Fold:
Amino acid sequence: MSGLPVFFPGQAPVFALPNVVLFPGARLALHVFESRYREMTRRALASDRLIAIALLRPGWEADYEGNPPIHATATLGQIIMETELPDGCFNIVLEGLVRFRPGATVQEIPYRIMQGVILEDGGEESGPTPVRELARTLGDQAQRLGGADFRFAAALSTLRIASLAPGRLADAISGILPLSVEARQSLLDTADVQARLEALVAAVGSRLAKLDPGRDRAEGWKWN
Structure:
């Protein structure tokens, strides 16, 4: 399977968070302090280093210490850097690999392990002309947006967008845009590459249309 450097056993530990969406290809730094997630991290480091990052559904506060519902699409990530602290906590960096569709829960305590399937990008081959045209448009928009705000430009400079396949390009741009967590989850839910690109082209195009070219670059732009 694309994006997976190790054998995937068909299940993964799930790190469920209320305000984080990880995209394939992006990196996420986490300070792991809860005892259940410290145990998850230790076991992951001793095996395949895989952890799925999932967004909690609204209302999670009532059962956070348990296993409140999560969104239907998560991202399977791999720990690429880790530091165990003297108090037993961890600082880790996860790299998103692929979309992951959680299914049945096979373990609830001390942390959740769920069966699931890998979601491959769809539509990238079936419609090459519109997909590649959309990817070029999004790349051009990203460069224009970078010219209007130094923070976005700095994030964009870490990406080699010209060499990315359309699906990876969409995920890379999704990962650096300051979108709401709901908008980010919606993009993660969209496995079809053409639909994902269309949503991003519309969102970035709308932002570009609202930019005031005369304002101070350092002020940046505001997102609803």
